[in-house]
Write a sequence for this structure.
C-alpha cells in the first residue's frame, strides 16, 4: 500500500508543479485533500497513529518473512 501511495504522491506532485496543465477542477480538489507524505496517508487508511509506525511495521513484517521463508 505504501508503494502505491508513493506513486500517487509523485503524480500529485507533478500535477501541482504545473507539468499537467489540463487538470480538471475536481481532480485538483482531490489532490489538495490527499496531500501529505505517503506513509502518513497509509497510516490513516490502516488505523495506525503515524507514518513512522507504518515504516516500523513494514520492517517487522520483512524481518519475520526473512526468518521464516529462508531459515
Amino acid at each position: 500500500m505504501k508503494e502505491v501511495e508513493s506513486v500517487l504522491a509523485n503524480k500529485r506532485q507533478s500535477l501541482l508543479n504545473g507539468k499537467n496543465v489540463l487538470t480538471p477542477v475536481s481532480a485538483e480538489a482531490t489532490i489538495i485533500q490527499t496531500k501529505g507524505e505517503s506513509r502518513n496517508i497509509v497510516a490513516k487508511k490502516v488505523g495506525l497513529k503515524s507514518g513512522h509506525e507504518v515504516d516500523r511495521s513494514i520492517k517487522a513484517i520483512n524481518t519475520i518473512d526473512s526468518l521464516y521463508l529462508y531459515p
User: Anything to note?
Assistant: Helices lie at 2-16, 25-33, 38-46, 51-69. Residues 51-69 form the longest helix (19 residues). The two ends are 27 Å apart (CA to CA).
